[in-house]
Amino acid sequence: MKLHDLRRDYELAELKREILNDDPMLQFQDWFTQANEHAGLPDPTAFTLATVNAAGQPHQRTVLLKQIDPDSFIFYTNYQSEKGRDIDANPQVAMHFAWLVMERQIRIEGCAEKVERDAVDAYFATRPRASQLGALASAQSAPIAERAELEARYQQLAEKYQDQPIPAPENWGGYRIKPSRFEFWQGGRHRLHDRFTYTRTADGWTIQRLQP
């Protein structure tokens, strides 16, 4: 199989300036609603989070969006994970939503900060009990000899907190990403894709079309 023979054209839609919302958060919510209702799109909340560590090495991984506020996006993780250590060193991050069955992508750049502790505790209480135990059992990103060790720790915690509320770990919580730049991408025929950026200014947002 030759990779350069794997190709398709993009023909589902066009993106025009006159149909864009002036507020990128509202434009995101509009596209997200459509993605969430699309029967062929699994995990619409999944996005690639890019961080950079203190040495300048970039890292990427897929995480799940858990909340959309009027001015920010929130996800949850272990603060001592690789992503948590990266954000401590450099809070500038990037997000990428790839809704390719809809021929759409969204890129977002911004600054991450920790979510308030009371909000973390409130969210943790809504998680399924198995997920709560998993967060408590795993020292995320730390080496481990074998899976059996992790499963044993999980079982010990399940027994310890049997019929009891499970507390949120102190080293676990949320990050709020406040965006400064968006790019909305709609695939186009002949690789003439539609791309629009929103850049934050002192007066609001500047919208610009980019060449593909």
Automatic annotation (TrEMBL):
<comment type="pathway">
    <text>Cofactor metabolism; pyridoxal 5'-phosphate salvage; pyridoxal 5'-phosphate from pyridoxine 5'-phosphate: step 1/1.</text>
</comment>
<feature type="binding site">
    <location>
        <position position="123"/>
    </location>
    <ligand>
        <name>substrate</name>
    </ligand>
</feature>
<dbReference type="Pfam" id="PF01243">
    <property type="entry name" value="PNPOx_N"/>
</dbReference>
<comment type="pathway">
    <text>Cofactor metabolism; pyridoxal 5'-phosphate salvage; pyridoxal 5'-phosphate from pyridoxamine 5'-phosphate: step 1/1.</text>
</comment>
<feature type="binding site">
    <location>
        <position position="66"/>
    </location>
    <ligand>
        <name>substrate</name>
    </ligand>
</feature>
<dbReference type="InterPro" id="IPR012349">
    <property type="entry name" value="Split_barrel_FMN-bd"/>
</dbReference>
<dbReference type="GO" id="GO:0008615">
    <property type="term" value="P:pyridoxine biosynthetic process"/>
</dbReference>
<feature type="binding site">
    <location>
        <position position="195"/>
    </location>
    <ligand>
        <name>FMN</name>
    </ligand>
</feature>
<comment type="subunit">
    <text>Homodimer.</text>
</comment>
<keyword id="KW-0288">FMN</keyword>
<dbReference type="InterPro" id="IPR000659">
    <property type="entry name" value="Pyridox_Oxase"/>
</dbReference>
<comment type="similarity">
    <text>Belongs to the pyridoxamine 5'-phosphate oxidase family.</text>
</comment>
<feature type="binding site">
    <location>
        <begin position="61"/>
        <end position="66"/>
    </location>
    <ligand>
        <name>FMN</name>
    </ligand>
</feature>
<keyword id="KW-0285">Flavoprotein</keyword>
<feature type="binding site">
    <location>
        <begin position="140"/>
        <end position="141"/>
    </location>
    <ligand>
        <name>FMN</name>
    </ligand>
</feature>
<dbReference type="InterPro" id="IPR019740">
    <property type="entry name" value="Pyridox_Oxase_CS"/>
</dbReference>
<dbReference type="GO" id="GO:0010181">
    <property type="term" value="F:FMN binding"/>
</dbReference>
<feature type="binding site">
    <location>
        <begin position="76"/>
        <end position="77"/>
    </location>
    <ligand>
        <name>FMN</name>
    </ligand>
</feature>
<feature type="binding site">
    <location>
        <position position="83"/>
    </location>
    <ligand>
        <name>FMN</name>
    </ligand>
</feature>
<keyword id="KW-0560">Oxidoreductase</keyword>
<feature type="domain" description="Pyridoxamine 5'-phosphate oxidase N-terminal">
    <location>
        <begin position="39"/>
        <end position="158"/>
    </location>
</feature>
<feature type="binding site">
    <location>
        <begin position="7"/>
        <end position="10"/>
    </location>
    <ligand>
        <name>substrate</name>
    </ligand>
</feature>
<dbReference type="GO" id="GO:0004733">
    <property type="term" value="F:pyridoxamine phosphate oxidase activity"/>
</dbReference>
<feature type="binding site">
    <location>
        <begin position="191"/>
        <end position="193"/>
    </location>
    <ligand>
        <name>substrate</name>
    </ligand>
</feature>
<feature type="binding site">
    <location>
        <position position="185"/>
    </location>
    <ligand>
        <name>FMN</name>
    </ligand>
</feature>
<dbReference type="InterPro" id="IPR019576">
    <property type="entry name" value="Pyridoxamine_oxidase_dimer_C"/>
</dbReference>
<keyword id="KW-0664">Pyridoxine biosynthesis</keyword>
<dbReference type="Pfam" id="PF10590">
    <property type="entry name" value="PNP_phzG_C"/>
</dbReference>
<feature type="binding site">
    <location>
        <position position="105"/>
    </location>
    <ligand>
        <name>FMN</name>
    </ligand>
</feature>
<feature type="binding site">
    <location>
        <position position="131"/>
    </location>
    <ligand>
        <name>substrate</name>
    </ligand>
</feature>
<dbReference type="InterPro" id="IPR011576">
    <property type="entry name" value="Pyridox_Oxase_N"/>
</dbReference>
<feature type="domain" description="Pyridoxine 5'-phosphate oxidase dimerisation C-terminal">
    <location>
        <begin position="172"/>
        <end position="212"/>
    </location>
</feature>
<protein>
    <recommendedName>
        <fullName>Pyridoxine/pyridoxamine 5'-phosphate oxidase</fullName>
        <ecNumber>1.4.3.5</ecNumber>
    </recommendedName>
</protein>
<feature type="binding site">
    <location>
        <position position="127"/>
    </location>
    <ligand>
        <name>substrate</name>
    </ligand>
</feature>
<comment type="function">
    <text>Catalyzes the oxidation of either pyridoxine 5'-phosphate (PNP) or pyridoxamine 5'-phosphate (PMP) into pyridoxal 5'-phosphate (PLP).</text>
</comment>
